Amino acid sequence: MGEIIVTDLKNEKHTVEATEGLSVMEIIYDANVPIKATCFGCCSCSTCHVYVDPEWINRIEPRSEEEEEILDMAVDFRDNSRLSCQILYNNDLNGLQVTLAEETKTD
Amino acid sequence: MVDLSLIEAPPIKTAEPGSGPIETDMVIIGAGPAGLFAAFEAGLLDIKCHFVDALDKPGGQCAELYPEKPLFDIAGIPACTGQELTNSLLKQCSPFEPVFHLNQQAEKLERHEDKWQLTTSENTVLQAPCIVIAAGGGSFVPKKLTLPNAQDFENTSLYYAVRKMATFEGKNLVIAGGGDSALDWTLNLQPLAKRLTLIHRRDQFRAAPDSVAKMHKLVEQGKIDFVTGQITGLNGKDQQLHSISVKTAETEQNIECDALLAFYGLTMKLGPIADWGLNLSQNHIDVSNETFETSTAGIFAIGDICQYPGKLKLILSGFHEAALMAHTAHHYVHPDKKLVFRYTTSSKDLHQKLGVT
User: Fold this and answer.
1) Mutation test of the interface with chain B: which of A38, A103, A106, choosing the one with the most B Cβ atoms within 10 A?
2) Which of B65, B274, B283 is opposite residue A39, by nearest beta carbon?
3) Which residue of A has its CA nearest to B66?
4) CA B45, CA B23: separation in Å to the nearest integer?
5) What is the pLDDT of residues B281-302, one digit of tens each?
6) Smallest CA–CA separation between A30 and chain B, in Å?
7) Which residues contact B262 (CB under 8 A, 6 or more apart)?
8) Is this prediction's ipTM beyond 0.85?
9) Considering the entire predicted model, what is its pTM?
10) CATH among 3.40.50.10330, 1.20.1730.10, 3.10.20.30, 2.60.40.770 for A2-104
11) Residue of B nearest to A32 (CA)
């Protein structure tokens, strides 16, 4: 068990409990922080798009080609853009900070 | 054993946009897997169906988001792709000849005498005793730029689709994106535009390799520009763009632009369904898990969009929901007929309907 810090679209920070083996998207969703996540982990949409805090970006597994292809469709892509469904949480990521991108907005 | 990859999608029946009023038994909103199987189950019970879908093809998320990705949890099918499942569902319901109203969104739902009347965004009017909402996560709409002033330019110099090619004639046109839409329109609009610039975040594309090769050739010939970067600002006034700011690896630059086409794929939005007075919570529609009827008589919801205790968002749940829904809908469509439950294995009557006698 650990925690991650999520900044939502209203710029509010949420410190949420993180369980090993879950994706960061699932952790955010389970904590009831609104995140669209349409395909819910299939790496088929970009509605779980987050910006990873620059201090953390090199501490997580790099993007797969599949993730790169989906990020091609991301609106407001940045160098620290990731799909949160593709970041698998482990305890080395305790304290990870991510910010939700605009396209995670729910209806 | 049946190899799903060998099943081709049969031709589908469509109608002119703006048709109607068309009377039918059931209007299914959303032609994804749950909706397609509902047309099959309804067909077995002599219920005729029309579909309304925002996409240009049936299949819903299966066809749009993961046509090539394998599914392993369809009962009885060890593995198939989203497109293969769509093709076989289309084939399965084809004996009942459902009609597809594609490229349009279900907009207005109202009572018309003893039926429901649904009007689409293309002014197609459908009347039926039953409406089935099988809309998944909502209808697919283009993703829009999130820059704060993007809305100011929308439809006047910022576009998310090409309606008329002439709009871009003689323009300093910028196209953003790396998929087939971006590449196809780059190739098609280059001869018309004054100058065309393609912007994508990297020098790799999801689009068909042939289109990518053609695009590179145009760059070599000096006929278009390709910039690797991200749009960071829209500059202009009175709804007219003059330039866009683009951040590249090295620098931030301004590109002259009086028309911008952005192709970042599609996202799903619930849309007008939210205003139909149904019991909704967090974009899901409450239903009875015996009948899959909503809080309003004659309106049903199945698949990912419906909600009841224990709901699982699985395609196979959508199939179950479709079957139960059809049996309840029968009372609305054929109030005078007794519903006799029959199996497709042995019923001569069902064999006749399926055309297998």
Assistant:
1) A38
2) B65
3) A44
4) 18
5) 878 999 999 999 999 999 999 9
6) 14
7) B142, B143, B144, B145, B158, B159, B160, B175, B176, B177, B231
8) yes
9) 0.86
10) 3.10.20.30
11) B282
